[in-house]
């Protein structure tokens, strides 16, 4: 898998963020590891630690997202991960249809790390 540059929606300009990249960094039969890199993050305000817990509505504020769809399938899974370490997981039967909470064997491990102008956000997804 390669690195993917994420682009802002035209209705929501990036407000000083230079570049956002995402990639799958590894995995095995039990875990998938992911990394997002945000360049130009010096002005980015991160939510404080909220506990490692499931939370709805993360997509409306600050979160990193992953969408997984089987080849040829209609349904997909959506995962939301916050630097606060809150997370969410849903299954959909079609595009934005049939949403149900996705059962997870354990909580994802979310690790934000911040430098002078770069934010690295790693997730281990069971």
Radius of gyration: 15 Å
Q: What is the CATH topology classification name?
A: Immunoglobulin-like
User: What's the helix-strand series?
Assistant: EEEEEEEEE
Q: What distance separates the N and C termini?
A: 18 Å
From the helix content, strand content and strand pairing, which structural class follows? mainly beta
Biggest sheet details: 5 strands, antiparallel
Low-confidence segments, ≥5 residues, pLDDT <50?
none
Spatial order of the strands in the main sheet? 1-2-3-9-8
Mean pLDDT: 93
* Percent of residues in β-strands: 35-45%
CATH structural class: Mainly Beta
Integer tally of domains: 1
Q: What's the count of strands?
A: 9
Just name the CATH architecture: Sandwich
Shape field:
globular
Structure commentary:
- By secondary structure, the chain is an all-beta fold.
- It has one domain (3-125): Immunoglobulin-like, CATH 2.60.40.
- It contains no helices and 9 strands.
- The strands form 2 sheets. The protein has a 5-stranded antiparallel β-sheet with strand order 1-2-3-9-8, with no helix packed on it. It has a 4-stranded antiparallel β-sheet with strand order 4-5-6-7, with no helix packed on it.
- The radius of gyration is 15 Å and the shape is globular.
- The two termini are 18 Å apart.
- The mean pLDDT is 93.
